[in-house]
Amino acid sequence: MSMEFKGKVALVTGGSRGLGATTAAALAARGADIAISYVASADKAEAVVRTLEETGVRAIAIRSDQADPSAARPLVDAVVSHFGRLDILVNNAAIAVQGQTVDDPALRDEELDRQWRINVLGAVATTRAAARALSDGGRIVFVGSGLGSRIPFPGVADYAGTKAAIVGYAKGVARDLGPRNITVNVVQPGIMPTDMAAAVADNLPEAVMDLHAIRRIATLDEVAAAVCFLAGPTADYITGGVLDVAGGFQI
């Protein structure tokens, strides 16, 4: 495998499990030193760090709650203090609160508000903090969702709204950081085999599968590879873009 990220430092938020851990491993396999953030899964985070270190890269896990925007600056400062630089930010941390329509009398308002804090305000705060620290020519990749641009079923309004907001924000950041040759893009997966999607991923109705031209869900490796592409040198002239990795869900 190409060592295209040798000498680079990447921060992957929410990197203790699921897509975050897979993306961290994919970046490390290509030579990047890795920082991952986590909230509560300390044992899982340390296990990810050990696995990354076994590939020959440097790695660190930092506890940081993305629901608290004030935690973003200390997170980025810790990465730069440990490694001396930051080249790649992968805004992966997110939660999914789904299943209720907005007129549901039992709507879980507090959970939905927390979702907006984590998925949007937390990602924005991390991006603001990282923007000042990123090396010129660096990369920011947001992990969005196919639901950010297509909503084929009810009960996902707030989640879809958070992901649509990220697309607009990413485009604005791409414009801001373009003069420094920092690219900013969004990867939009469909349903993936993660803990967050476990409630639906294994029992998808045929009608949902029919929405995909390729009738299966994405693998974590496929989505991580898309992140690595946008973070790599062959994507130098791609910025403000949205890359769907969803088997034709957007068609």
UniProtKB/TrEMBL annotation:
Recorded superkingdom: Bacteria
A GO MF label: oxidoreductase activity, acting on the CH-OH group of donors, NAD or NADP as acceptor
SUPFAM superfamilies assigned: NAD(P)-binding Rossmann-fold domains (SSF51735)
Protein family: Belongs to the short-chain dehydrogenases/reductases (SDR) family.
Matches recorded under InterPro entries: NAD(P)-bd_dom_sf, SDR_fam
Native source organism of the sequence: Acuticoccus sediminis
Name the record gives this protein: Oxidoreductase
